[in-house]
């Protein structure tokens, strides 16, 4: 998937925590599509990447 | 956690025309109890797992890798070590991208699970191209460069005493339109 993502051409990767954080709310939840303005396929890729990053403890599951 | 490759994901690897092997990436956490100098040895062990398969076929082709660096985990990872609980708040995170036969992956996952130095790992199907975000040049300012508009300089005022006559004159000049 090579599409415009946050204004730049690159792929969505679970290791790119810095970028993924932009799509999380302060509680660590994934923002909805109406907030992220991503295409359906990119939103799915984002959700996948965030879940991978959470499993690898690069991102938190919850922020209290 | 076992990542099952998505049917679409294999179609994504467009540049695998030269060799049909799918590209995988293993990300792993090495326990922080391993000394900084010995991390290289653990990485070598993981690379050895990607080596020649037991049935004689050639091993994985390593495309790219990142040497593990220590990072603070987003949450504490707990695991039991012979009945004792171990809690880790930090780990060395590294990854290796490689191309290999699909059948070699379950064996790799089993071996990594058995490695005590590996706290957690994730094998994902990916593409040969770089995933890294291209860094754009940062321009510090978009302001127009040029001459600064100066404040008009007023005629220097005469210093010293002013006679009453002169004062009256200038006042008159100000009052009369």
The CATH superfamily of chain A turns out to be Ribosomal protein S18
Oligomer: heterodimer
Percent of residues of chain B in beta strands? 25-35%
Report the radius of gyration of chain B as a whole number of Å.
35 Å
- Count helical runs of chain A: 3
The secondary-structure element order of chain A is EEHHH
Short recap of the structure:
Chain A is mainly alpha-helical.
Structure description:
The complex is a heterodimer of chains A (64) and B (177). With 64 residues, chain A is mainly alpha-helical. Chain A has a single domain (3-55), classed as Ribosomal protein S18 (30s Ribosomal Protein S18, Irregular). Chain A is 39% helix and 9% strand. Chain A has helices spanning 17-21, 33-36, 40-55, and strands at 3-5, 8-10. The model of chain A has no long low-confidence stretch (mean pLDDT 86). Chain B is an alpha+beta fold. Chain B has a domain at 22-125: Alpha-Beta Plaits (2-Layer Sandwich). Chain B is 22% helix and 31% strand. Chain B has 4 helices and 4 strands, in the order H-E-H-E-E-H-E-H. Chain B has helices at residues 7-12, 39-49, 105-114, 164-175; strands at residues 23-30, 61-81, 84-99, 118-126. Chain B has a 4-stranded antiparallel beta sheet with strand order 2-3-1-4. The longest helix of chain B is centred in the C-terminal third of the chain and has 12 residues, at 164-175. The termini of chain B are far apart. The A-B interface holds A 1, 8-11, 13-16, 19, 52, 54-61 and B 1, 3, 12, 27, 29, 71, 73-75, 77, 91, 93, 95, 120, 122, 124, 127, 129, 131-134, 136.
SSE layout and pairings?
The complex is a heterodimer of chains A (64) and B (177).
Chain A: E1 3-5, E2 8-10, H1 17-21, H2 33-36, H3 40-55
Antiparallel strand pairs in A: 1-2
Chain B: H1 7-12, E1 23-30, H2 39-49, E2 61-81, E3 84-99, H3 105-114, E4 118-126, H4 164-175
Antiparallel strand pairs in B: 1-3, 1-4, 2-3
């Amino acid at each position: 998937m090579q599409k415009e993502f946050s204004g730049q051409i690159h792929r969505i990767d679970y290791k790119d925590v810095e970028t993924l954080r932009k799509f999380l709310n302060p509680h660590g939840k994934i923002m909805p599509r109406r907030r992220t303005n991503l295409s359906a396929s990119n939103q799915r890729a984002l959700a996948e990447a965030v879940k991978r990053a959470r499993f690898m403890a690069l991102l938190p599951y919850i922020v209290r | 956690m076992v990542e099952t490759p998505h049917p679409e994901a294999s179609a994504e690897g467009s540049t695998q025309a030269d060799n049909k092997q799918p590209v995988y990436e293993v990300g792993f956490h090495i326990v922080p109890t391993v000394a900084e100098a010995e991390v290289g040895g653990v990485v070598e062990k993981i690379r050895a797992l990607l080596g020649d398969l037991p049935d004689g076929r050639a091993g994985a082709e390593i495309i790219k890798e990142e040497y593990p660096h220590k990072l603070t985990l987003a949450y504490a990872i707990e695991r039991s070590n012979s009945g004792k609980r171990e809690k880790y708040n930090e780990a060395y995170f590294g990854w290796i991208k490689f191309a290999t036969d699909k059948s070699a992956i379950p064996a790799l996952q089993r071996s990594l699970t058995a490695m005590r130095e590996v706290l957690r790992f994730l094998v994902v199907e990916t593409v040969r191209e770089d995933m890294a975000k291209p860094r754009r040049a940062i321009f510090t300012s978009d302001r127009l460069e040029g001459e600064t508009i100066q404040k008009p300089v007023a005629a220097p005022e005469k210093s010293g005493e002013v006679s009453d006559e002169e004062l009256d004159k200038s006042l008159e000049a100000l009052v009369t339109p």
